[in-house]
Amino acid sequence: MTGLSYFENAYSESADPWNLVSEYEQRKYTLTLASLPRQSYASAFEPGCSIGVLTGLLAQRCERIIATDGVAAPLQEVAGRAPSAEVGVGTIPADWPAGSFDLIVLSEVMYYLTAADRRHVLERARDSLLRSGHLLVVHWRHSFEEAECDGDVVHAEVTEFATEVGWSRLVHHVETDFRLEVFGCDAT
Ligand SMILES: C[S@@+](CC[C@H](N)C(=O)[O-])C[C@H]1O[C@@H](n2cnc3c(N)ncnc32)[C@H](O)[C@@H]1O
Q1: Cβ of 138 below 6 Å from ligand 1
Q2: Domain region containing 135
């Protein structure tokens, strides 16, 4: 797993190390939100939320959203973007919140985890995702130094896991830089 010190250093140098307010990210978030099969969700979990740009958008569609990050620094900004979000420090897969969710969002976080931890994350998602729920996964496709693997590897693993546990792939969007998929048992 990419050590948390890497992220702590990144946040000590910049409040927004990945420029999550960029046009590229805004367009990706628009596609992310448009890909959700349902207009509203009762209870969502978004690990690796960073400064909460996506959290703020998701919160408008979710009655309840839990947003966590392995690093505390960016979380101070989440309340301003998503006042209703329940925000806390937490590292996946270890700090998976109790309860069930009808939406789990893994956005640009899985490639930082080891293969074993990625598998644990998917197992925890399987255990906490309601039958009516959706798992949304979106990742940058290219290799980069800090990542354990690229986004295509992450999505291939999720697709294989989905087959194993009987989830259907409801959305499949691939472009040069990122890949976005939604899995679930039900289409609506
Ligand atoms: C590239 S940012 C993604 C932000 C957000 N998910 C998005 O798509 O806009 C990655 C974030 O994941 C966090 N992170 C990395 N590994 C993590 C882990 N194992 N558990 C929780 N958060 C983690 C980092 O601290 C960082 O804030």
Answers
A1: no
A2: 4-184
